[in-house]
Structure formats: structure tokens, C-alpha cells
Design brief:
By secondary structure, this protein is of the alpha/beta class. It has 14 helices and 11 strands. The chain is globular, with a radius of gyration of 21 Å.
Amino acid sequence: MLRVYFTAEDLARVRVASGPDVLWEISNSVQTLQRRDGARAFGEWRRWARPRLSESCRLLSPLLPPHGCSPDFLTPTHGAGETLHAAVDTLVRTPLPRLRTDLSRVAASRRLPGWTESLARGDAAALRKLGRALHTYHLEALAPFWPRIHAQIDADRIIRLHSLLDGGTDGLLAGLGPQLRWQPPVLEVDYPVDQELLLDGRGLTLQPSFFCWPTPVTLADGELPPVLVYPIDHASDWTHDPAPADRPDGGALGPLIGHTRAAVLRAAGTGSSTVELARLLAVTHPAISQHVKVLRAAGLVTTVRRAGRSLHVATAEGRALLRSCGA
């Protein structure tokens, strides 16, 4: 079990990350790809991805096994919303002491491939090789689904916002799911090993993750900026029809013309349930469901189900369309 200890100052400095962290998603997905459980959420993606992956995954897998610790430097703290290029640039500039410490810790529990010895020495060529593998893996395994991954994490953020508005920080921490239990001032987390994290006034970043499975994860080094990565719920059809762009085209946007549908999209900007939309717009539940179905097919809305209700949330594309129309 992981126990996270809060002070009063920490409770005032809890934040939910503003979007997916690309390196956490790469790391978590490489680990999830090697597992057999979680077939309902990841089975189709595994069958789709495995035949398409090149040497990049074989390079990353020893560093990111399905069980056991992984190097902290693979998920450095960087600016929210940072691009993959910028995140990898941060990674390849990891200080030598961090490389040595992390790789020595991992090597104590399992044998690492020979090329990681160069990595532990801070060899620039080895770091560039690792950076290329991360870029290639993301392109092959994650990029076709990235808009959907982003949309699902945006939806989870809306759920956390509702928890915060309804119950403050206590409500936010208590509502993170059955794997996390808020027993003030300690957050107990299902974890494969016993570990304690003393926040000591530094606060905590809650990082929703699409590929985190099956339990939340944190960094091994408690001196690093505190982060808790937790699994989110998944839409059942998220792997359907992957495409490199995965964006609505003109044909998909055609059916969107209409005041009611635009109002649905606008309300979904901050997350609304079917019942709330029907009440707000004074239309029937079936009518709302049909509007949402069209918006979802166009990639402008995603739907998550939580506590027996459906919450509809505008995707990044949906919000961009609203901005372009001045809505």
C-alpha cells in the first residue's frame, strides 16, 4: 500500500493536471501492452498495436516492465501541456546523478540490457537513441488514438471539478475511486509495494492517465515533485476505427447546423449530463441523446459514465469549434 501524508498546506496545493502527460502515457502504455489483464479496456488496442510496433517497443520494454519499478527519469516533471518533442528534450538532458541512481535501483531487481550501461554513463548517443524510441513508439502506438485519449482525460478532469465544487478538497480526494481511500490526513492507495510519501507542504499533482493500469503509480524517489498518476474510466469503443488525424471533416460537421445542437455543445464545455441538458434546453431526453450521438460521431463530444449517469464533455476539437464561432 502507498500512504500519502498531507499537511494543511498540502491540502491547499492539490491540483489536477491540465491534460495528459505524454511521457506518463508512453510509460504506462508500454507496461500495459505487456500485461494480459484489463482485456476489456485494452484488449483490442493490444491486438491492433503489437503487429505494428518496430524495434522501439523492444528497446523500451526492459526499462518499463509490466511489474516492478521503472526509472523515474522516464517521466520527468515538465510544463503542463508540453509537447512530446519538448518532453523528450527534457528527458535527454537528465542529469548524470539521476540516470545513475534510477538505473542502479532498477538493476538491483532485474537484469537490464547492455546498452543501458552507456545510458547510466550519460552517453549522448544512448540518450538520443532512447529519445528516438519514444518518438517512434508514440507515433506507432498512441498517435492514432491521441485525440480520444485527450478527450477522455478532459472528461475525467470535469468529473474531478464537480467533486471539488461539491465537496472541496476532501470531496476531490474521496472521489478518486475505489483504489484510493481518503482517511484524513492520509490518502491510502492500492499499490504493489509498501511506500510512504511525505508531501511536507509541497502539495500534490493528481495526473489522470488513460493507460495507467491496474493501480495508481507514483515516483520511486520521494524527494522529486510529488505526483500521483491514477487510472481513468474508458469509453468502450475508444479503439474503433483509428486514424492518424482522427478529426472531424466537413462531411461530419454538416449535420451540426442548428441552434439546439450548438447549445448542447456549448453546455458540454463544462460537462453536462443528459438530464441536465434536457432541463437546460427544455427538450426531451431522447432528443438530447440523438444530438449527443451526432456530436460524438463528429469527434466534438465524448461521454463518460459515472455513478449511474452519463456525462457529456466537449473535446478539444469541440471547444475549438466553439471558439471559432465566438460561442
